[in-house]
């Protein structure tokens, strides 16, 4: 990143941070989460600086990034809530430690993000096979493809799972 890029992002931050924070606060109904997502928005801008055609374009770009971060935030909260509900139904003796819980939630989030990047049929086939234990024949009928395609879909999903595992283990560098 050049000094000029840093200066552009700094000006963008000074000009629009208050506006973005307020936009996010209204959307999230939480000032702390809004502050975090506003910060994350500018981190994304720092990673990919660009030039803008005026204030409207600047705000449009920031709002687009912020919307995506809100969706990720809500999705993560949904996963955490589902996990906590599942956990509440377990006897106290079988509850994982707080550290294990944090690792599990983070892993669930990473798997969910990986599934979101897959084509719809691939992620659906994977979920039906792994979570619902459906045989290939029934998955093929459900999705409307051949069993052979289900095997290809599941191989593709498993390859992405292996890549995610390697990434989480620190073996892959982005």
Automatic annotation (TrEMBL):
**What residue stretches are annotated with the RNA polymerase sigma factor 70 region 4 type domain?**
110-161
What InterPro entries does UniProt report for this protein, alphabetically?
RNA_pol_sigma-70-like (IPR039425), RNA_pol_sigma-70_dom (IPR014284), RNA_pol_sigma70_r2 (IPR007627), RNA_pol_sigma70_r4_t2 (IPR013249), RNA_pol_sigma_r2 (IPR013325), RNA_pol_sigma_r3/r4-like (IPR013324), WH-like_DNA-bd_sf (IPR036388)
GO terms for biological process, alphabetical: DNA-templated transcription initiation
Tell me, what is one Gene Ontology molecular-function annotation carried by this entry? sigma factor activity
Tagged with keyword Nucleotide-binding: no
Pfam families hit by this protein: Sigma70_r2 (PF04542), Sigma70_r4_2 (PF08281)
Q: Enumerate the spans annotated as RNA polymerase sigma-70 region domain.
A: 12-78
- Recorded superkingdom: Bacteria
Keywords on record: Sigma factor, Transcription, Transcription regulation
Any keyword Protein transport? no
Per the record, the similarity remark reads:
Belongs to the sigma-70 factor family. ECF subfamily.
**Name recorded for this polypeptide:** Sigma-70 family RNA polymerase sigma factor
């Amino acid at each position: 990143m050049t000094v000029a890029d840093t200066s552009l992002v700094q000006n963008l931050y000074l000009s629009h941070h208050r506006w973005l924070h307020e936009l996010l606060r209204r959307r999230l109904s939480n000032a702390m989460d809004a502050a975090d997502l506003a910060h994350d928005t500018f981190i994304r801008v720092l990673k990919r600086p660009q030039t803008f055609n005026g204030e409207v374009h600047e705000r449009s770009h920031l709002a687009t990034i912020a919307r995506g971060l809100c969706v990720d935030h809500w999705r993560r909260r949904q996963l955490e809530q589902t996990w906590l509900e599942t956990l509440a139904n377990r006897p106290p003796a079988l509850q994982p430690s707080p550290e294990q819980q944090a690792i599990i939630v983070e892993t669930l989030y990473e798997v969910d993000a990986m599934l979101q990047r897959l084509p719809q049929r691939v992620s659906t086939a994977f979920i039906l096979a792994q979570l619902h234990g459906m045989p290939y024949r029934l998955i093929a009928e459900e999705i409307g493809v051949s069993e052979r395609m289900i095997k290809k879909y599941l191989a593709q999903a498993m390859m992405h799972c292996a890549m995610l595992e390697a990434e989480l283990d620190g073996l892959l560098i982005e």
